[in-house]
Fold this protein.
Amino acid sequence: MRNSNMTLSKYLINEISVDPELTDLSSLLIDVATAVITISAMLAKGALGGYLGSAEVENVQGEVQKKLDVISNDAFIEQCQWGGQLAGMVSEELELAYQIPAEQERGRYLLLFDPLDGSSNIDFNVSVGTIFSILAKEDNSAATTQDFLRQGINQVAAGYAIYGPSTMLVLTLGRGTHGFTLDRDSGNFILTHPSITIPEETSEYSINTSNSRFWEPPIARYIAECKEGSTGVRNHDFNMRWIASMVAEVHRIILRGGIFMYPRDTRDPSKPGRLRLMYEANPMAMLVEQAGGWASTGRGRMLEVEPTSIHQRIPVILGSKREVERVERYHEEYDAGTDTPYDSPLFGERSLYLDK
Ligand code: F6P
């Protein structure tokens, strides 16, 4: 599987030989990889680096920022703004789109990112990640907010870095999903997981079940059936995982299958989901589709959602194709009023899941 000679740079040079238009995009991806190495080095220091703990300020989402959220955001901006490939950036940590300073050269690409996803885990030495999405404009004029509001199918590249026992960069330019592992000795990302394919079927689901009383009926139905396991309609047992770090969850799923859900719930009617469309759901959806999986809101393909704002939240269901399609079908049946009665032993308890 592993080709120790295939560094990220060589991989990108190969891509450019197929499509010379990718030259600027490849330079941008090298800058992104450099930012990832910087963040990885800070995270690896843990408590010794003095970076743990709260920055004691809130971001635009109303979440208290960790010091490392702020430092990672700065690392991304500093590393990526000067190369001349970007027209603008959007970060989870910034309310407004970031403008490339007037003295810097501009390009036509738009970089959207969550610099440190799952950051509630940082202080406890659990895997966290960086997620990014790249869009392209027609020209290199300064980016307006409107320029970023494009469906996920328009992404020209997407990826994430996972900071775990090893640091990996998982990337797609629309020709498969490929995983690179950071060789800390040489400072190179090495292609260790080429052409990742998500197993179609799975027995593993990831969802925060503490929210179950707020779920919509199709999600309650799906999870109830998984929990019934071999005694219910699914006829086999399921396993559950929840790390509370989307990157870690998606990474596990693309390598061994599974389904990840942060669905719509009724906790706060102003928030149709927890995760952000532009720099969490869309890039993950592109990576998952490129690996043969599927990503949905439950009621439609993620990559076809028309964005309305840069920090928009969205319900997310992604992973092994057949499982995601099943959840979509449950939404369809529920919306059409054809989902009852359950042919499940839990039917008699349906009100436990649905009517509160
Ligand atoms: O910001 C998003 C995130 O941290 C994801 O990485 C993770 O999947 C989710 O939130 C965890 O949410 P909760 O704390 O509700 O389990």
Residues 117-118, 208, 244-246, 262, 274-275 surround 6-O-phosphono-beta-D-fructofuranose (CB under 6 Å). The first strand starts at residue 54 and ends at 58. The chain has a mean pLDDT of 92.
